[in-house]
From TrEMBL:
<feature type="binding site">
    <location>
        <position position="85"/>
    </location>
    <ligand>
        <name>Mg(2+)</name>
    </ligand>
</feature>
<dbReference type="InterPro" id="IPR036206">
    <property type="entry name" value="ThiamineP_synth_sf"/>
</dbReference>
<feature type="binding site">
    <location>
        <position position="104"/>
    </location>
    <ligand>
        <name>4-amino-2-methyl-5-(diphosphooxymethyl)pyrimidine</name>
    </ligand>
</feature>
<comment type="similarity">
    <text>Belongs to the thiamine-phosphate synthase family.</text>
</comment>
<keyword id="KW-0460">Magnesium</keyword>
<feature type="binding site">
    <location>
        <position position="133"/>
    </location>
    <ligand>
        <name>4-amino-2-methyl-5-(diphosphooxymethyl)pyrimidine</name>
    </ligand>
</feature>
<feature type="binding site">
    <location>
        <begin position="181"/>
        <end position="182"/>
    </location>
    <ligand>
        <name>2-[(2R,5Z)-2-carboxy-4-methylthiazol-5(2H)-ylidene]ethyl phosphate</name>
    </ligand>
</feature>
<comment type="function">
    <text>Condenses 4-methyl-5-(beta-hydroxyethyl)thiazole monophosphate (THZ-P) and 2-methyl-4-amino-5-hydroxymethyl pyrimidine pyrophosphate (HMP-PP) to form thiamine monophosphate (TMP).</text>
</comment>
<feature type="domain" description="Thiamine phosphate synthase/TenI">
    <location>
        <begin position="4"/>
        <end position="184"/>
    </location>
</feature>
<protein>
    <recommendedName>
        <fullName>Thiamine-phosphate synthase</fullName>
        <ecNumber>2.5.1.3</ecNumber>
    </recommendedName>
</protein>
<dbReference type="Pfam" id="PF02581">
    <property type="entry name" value="TMP-TENI"/>
</dbReference>
<feature type="binding site">
    <location>
        <position position="66"/>
    </location>
    <ligand>
        <name>Mg(2+)</name>
    </ligand>
</feature>
<feature type="binding site">
    <location>
        <begin position="34"/>
        <end position="38"/>
    </location>
    <ligand>
        <name>4-amino-2-methyl-5-(diphosphooxymethyl)pyrimidine</name>
    </ligand>
</feature>
<dbReference type="InterPro" id="IPR022998">
    <property type="entry name" value="ThiamineP_synth_TenI"/>
</dbReference>
<dbReference type="InterPro" id="IPR034291">
    <property type="entry name" value="TMP_synthase"/>
</dbReference>
<feature type="binding site">
    <location>
        <begin position="130"/>
        <end position="132"/>
    </location>
    <ligand>
        <name>2-[(2R,5Z)-2-carboxy-4-methylthiazol-5(2H)-ylidene]ethyl phosphate</name>
    </ligand>
</feature>
<dbReference type="GO" id="GO:0000287">
    <property type="term" value="F:magnesium ion binding"/>
</dbReference>
């Protein structure tokens, strides 16, 4: 379920809209799409989210970054939180039963706290240093990924500096999936990049089992 998680970013997409990124990534096999945009108004985000929900319907889970209100209003499958966003327990009170809540973590302690609070998944962020998110900070590295994966029962994904070359090592370290921005969004062919990465993840999981 958490194999390939694509985060949309219009600033890195060579002119593609959030909706078009989603459409092409889903066609390539991405099974989670996250809308991430810090610049647009609430109304703009809502309208985009409604369109992306329809693009993902039946093919991929649709997640909204940070904005619980937009996620709920658009009927998204879930929301992704940061450490400075509303607490998981508070968000859970607002949401329907099967609404997914993911959260970025940077340590075993944060991952355990998130799981205890009811997170559906945690995202080690950033795994490696990345230029796709200016506020991401220094990469935590493979060792932290391995420690977090062995410390919690909920799914763990990684984000930050992940590409086709380092994905096999990360899956071998225990990740349930990888989240990418530029590795797919900035590719000359978004669909083909998603297809290639999906196959790499699948193969890496088969080799792990």
């Amino acid at each position: 379920m958490y194999d390939l998680y694509v985060v949309t970013d219009e600033a890195l997409s060579h002119g593609l809209t959030h909706e078009e990124i989603a459409r092409r990534a889903v066609a390539g096999g991405a099974n989670i799409i996250q809308l991430r945009d810090k610049e647009k108004s609430s109304r703009e985000l809502y309208e985009i989210a409604c369109k992306m929900k329809e693009i993902c319907r039946g093919y991929a889970l649709f997640i909204v970054n940070d904005r619980v209100d937009v996620a709920l209003a658009a009927g998204a499958d879930g929301v992704h939180l940061g450490q400075s966003d509303l607490p998981i327990a508070a968000v859970r009170k607002l949401c329907p039963k099967n609404f997914l809540i993911g959260i970025s973590v940077g340590s075993v302690e944060e991952a355990k706290e998130a799981e205890a609070a009811g997170a559906d998944y945690v995202a080690v962020s950033p795994v490696f240093s990345t230029s796709s998110k200016s506020d991401a900070g220094a990469g935590h590295g493979i060792a932290v990924v391995r420690d977090i994966c062995s410390s919690v029962m909920c799914p763990v994904i990684g984000i930050g500096g992940i590409n086709a070359e380092n994905t096999p090592e990360l899956i071998a370290a225990g990740l349930d999936g990888v989240a990418v921005i530029s590795a797919v969004v900035s590719a000359p062919d978004v669909t083909e990049a998603a297809r290639e990465l999906s196959l790499i993840i699948k193969t890496a999981k088969e080799n792990r089992s």
